[in-house]
Design goal:
Keywords: Membrane, Transmembrane, Transmembrane helix. By secondary structure, the chain is an all-alpha fold. Helices cover about 80% and strands about 0% of the residues.
């Protein structure tokens, strides 16, 4: 198995849930996605990966 570049997992963790939320909102709820949700998800993903990088450096 080839190693993935370091940017693939954080990008996927951010993009996939946002795209799912947009699709669900468009198809079932017929309204816009809340921009606060996108910002909150972006911040959460950044924090998760910051902790992962710090823990890798400590180990």
């Amino acid at each position: 198995m080839s190693a993935l570049p370091g940017w693939v997992l954080p990008t996927a963790m951010f993009v996939v849930p946002v795209l799912v939320a947009v699709v669900v909102n468009r198809l079932f709820r017929h309204r816009r996605t809340n921009p606060n949700f996108v910002l909150a998800w972006f911040v959460a993903v950044c924090w998760i990966f910051a902790v992962v990088v710090i823990l890798r450096q400590v180990r």
